[in-house]
Every structure is written in structure tokens, then in C-alpha cells.
Write a structure and sequence with these properties.
It is built from 10 helices and 18 strands. The protein is an alpha/beta fold. It has 2 domains: 2-130 and 303-331, Alpha-Beta Complex (Quinone Oxidoreductase, Chain A, domain 1), CATH 3.90.180.10; 136-278, NAD(P)-binding Rossmann-like Domain (Rossmann fold), CATH 3.40.50. The strands form 4 sheets. Strands 3, 5, 6, 7, 8, 17 and 18 form a 7-stranded mixed beta sheet that branches. Strands 11-10-9-14-15-16 form a 6-stranded parallel beta sheet, sandwiched between helices. Helix 3 packs across helix 4 and helix 3 packs across helix 9. The termini are close together. The protein binds zinc ion. Residues 37, 39, 59-60, 132-133 line the site of zinc ion (ZN).
């Protein structure tokens, strides 16, 4: 067997791997599809989690159960399942000994409905493996706490930003403006049915939002009518731009990973009483994402821009780093 592992800064390799034997509380999943995540690329740049420690990669996986410990209930050999890495004690793919870029994934202390979730009938492994990024996206949207009729801006149309657009529109929030620097990504946003998809480097963003979302008098000045801004891009100018145009009680949800401290005009926030908050992971969202898969499977499948075999994962990592790509999916062959 093989396992994708980080060995140092920028040093990632497919290692020969001997899977530990499963204990009575464990399950082994024969991996079928595993998505490459933006955080995988960040971990490689950092040189591991924590930096300097060999780290197994892959946390967006779906596959078929091939072994079930004697004390595990409700899970059977042959079941098609999604692995929720946040609910595994070994923190699969984010710092523990296990990673999903392997042929056989050991899920320690597996529990049905918790770390192991059944794939609904008629859903492909590729679509199922989108569960994790779609759950991240749903949590970001949940933190924005918006309802139909609200006006929303999403910065960034990578896999997470696209997932946010999918959930917003699915929930009837249709006045959504998507922003990205890549025309390919803006095209994908348009296909989801957003109000507008724009390249902020080519427009006056405030003026454009005033047109699309209107303007609201706001404590002696005028804010744009946007109710919530969601940052899935992480560009250092976003906070300041949002603060300067935010209306009274507007919200900003930061879901991007800022690697450096940034300055922003706190004084201007005083009169808008705006809220800045963050969102990370998916404490509760996976079951709702899975329940929506039969309804949204075609739109979810369209978010996969590339599919490569595990033998070409290095090429996959390169493609995932390009701004034109959406989700890069890896198909895991038999060992
Ligand atoms: Zn991920």
C-alpha cells in the first residue's frame, strides 16, 4: 500500500505504507475518491502539522468498508461511506498518523453517524467525497446567518466559495455577488445562478455593489445594502474594503486562512456596529450536506474540474494550486 506524506517544507511523497491492523473498535475503508484540499497545499508549504513533523495527507475521502471490528455496530463490509475526519481520534489528514490518500484507510474508534456516514443511493464516490468541503462551505454560510431576501457578497470562487454559493442559492438567498480574479472560476459561479460574478480588480467594487444591492444611510454616511460578506479568499485588502463600505449591522464572516497579521480601520466600525466573525470546520453540517446530495448531485459534480488516478497525485497537487481549477479529485485504484 501507499500513503501520501509530507516530509518537510515543500517535500511531499507517496511512501510505501503498511496499514496498522484494525482493532475491535476500528473500521477499514477501501478508498475510492479523495479530494485535494487547499489546506493540503498549505500543510505542504508549512512542512507538516506541526511544521517539521511527518504528516499523512487526505481528509476528503469516500470509499467502501472492507473490514469492521467486532465491537463496531451498524457498519458492514461493503457499505459505501464518507469519512468525517473531524470526528476521528487520529485527526485523519490533518496531523495524525492516518491520511485518506491511501488504498486502505484505518478509521479508529469508528462510529456510524459520527465518523462514518453512509452514502445515499445513487451518489457516486466522487460526489460523496465533496462532502467535506461542502460542509466547510455550509458552516461558513451558517455563520453568516442569512435568510431569503438578504444580500450577500462572497469573496473567492474556489471550491469553498463555490460551495457557499451553492448553499446560499439552495436556501433561496439569490441576491448573491461572487468575486474572483479568475474568469474560469467566475464562469462556475454564474452556472450556479448568482446575481453577478465579477473580477474585483477590474471594477469599482463599492460602486458596483451600490448598483446591485442598493445604498443605505448609515450613521451620517452611506453604506452599500449588502447584509453579509463572506471571505473565502483571504486577500489582505478585503477587511478594510468591507469595513469602509459596510452598512449598519452588516456582517463579515472570515473563512480564509490569514497567515500574517493585518491592519484594518477599527474606528470606522464604531458607527456601523458591524460584526466580524470567523468560521472553521463543520461541527454539525455533514448530515445535512449528505441529505442534500441526491437533490444537488449534478451541481456538486460540476464543481470537480479534474479527476486523476492516485498514481498521478503529484500532478494533481500542481493543478490544485492553479487559480483555474476547482476541485481536483483523486481516484484511488486497488493496491
Ligand atoms: Zn478540505
Amino acid at each position: 500500500m501507499e500513503l501520501l506524506k509530507i516530509h518537510g517544507v515543500g517535500d511531499v511523497r507517496v511512501d510505501a505504507y503498511e496499514r496498522p491492523a484494525a482493532g475491535p473498535k476500528d473500521v477499514v475503508v477501501k478508498m475510492k475518491s479523495v479530494g485535494i484540499c487547499g489546506s493540503d497545499l498549505s500543510y505542504i508549504k508549512m512542512g507538516g502539522i506541526p511544521p517539521g513533523v511527518e504528516t499523512a495527507l487526505g481528509h476528503e475521502g469516500a470509499g467502501e468498508v472492507m473490514e469492521v471490528g467486532a465491537e463496531v455496530s451498524g457498519i458492514a463490509v461493503g457499505d459505501a461511506v464518507i469519512v468525517n475526519p473531524m470526528m476521528t481520534p487520529s485527526n485523519i489528514g490533518s496531523g495524525g498518523p492516518e491520511g485518506a490518500f491511501t488504498q486502505e484507510l484505518l478509521v479508529r474508534e469508528a462510529r456510524l453517524g459520527d465518523s462514518i456516514l453512509p452514502i445515499p443511493e445513487g451518489i457516486s464516490y466522487d460526489v460523496a467525497a465533496m462532502c467535506e468541503p461542502l460542509a466547510v462551505a455550509m458552516h461558513g454560510v451558517n455563520r453568516a446567518d442569512v435568510k431569503p431576501g438578504d444580500k450577500v457578497v462572497v469573496f473567492g470562487c474556489g471550491p469553498i466559495g463555490l460551495g457557499m454559493l451553492l448553499w446560499l442559492i439552495d436556501r433561496g438567498v439569490t441576491d448573491v455577488v461572487a468575486l474572483d480574479l479568475s474568469e474560469e472560476r467566475l464562469e462556475r459561479a454564474r452556472a450556479l445562478g448568482v446575481q453577478a460574478a465579477l473580477d474585483p480588480s477590474k471594477i469599482d467594487l463599492r460602486a458596483e455593489l451600490a448598483k446591485l444591492h442598493g445604498e443605505v444611510p448609515s450613521y451620517g454616511r452611506v453604506g452599500v445594502g449588502t447584509d453579509a460578506f463572506i471571505d473565502a479568499a483571504g486577500a489582505p485588502n478585503i477587511l478594510t474594503e468591507v469595513i469602509m463600505m459596510a452598512k449598519f449591522h452588516a456582517k463579515l464572516v472570515i473563512t480564509a486562512a490569514y497567515m500574517r497579521p493585518i491592519e484594518f480601520p477599527v474606528g470606522r466600525m464604531l458607527t456601523s456596529e458591524m460584526t466580524i466573525t470567523t468560521a472553521v470546520g463543520y461541527p454539525t453540517e455533514m448530515p445535512e450536506v449528505i441529505a442534500a446530495m441526491p437533490r444537488l448531485k449534478d451541481k456538486i459534480a460540476a464543481m470537480i474540474s479534474h479527476k486523476l488516478p492516485f498514481s498521478e497525485i503529484m500532478k494533481g497537487l500542481e493543478i490544485a494550486a492553479t487559480p483555474q481549477s476547482a476541485k481536483v479529485m483523486i481516484g484511488i485504484e486497488e493496491a
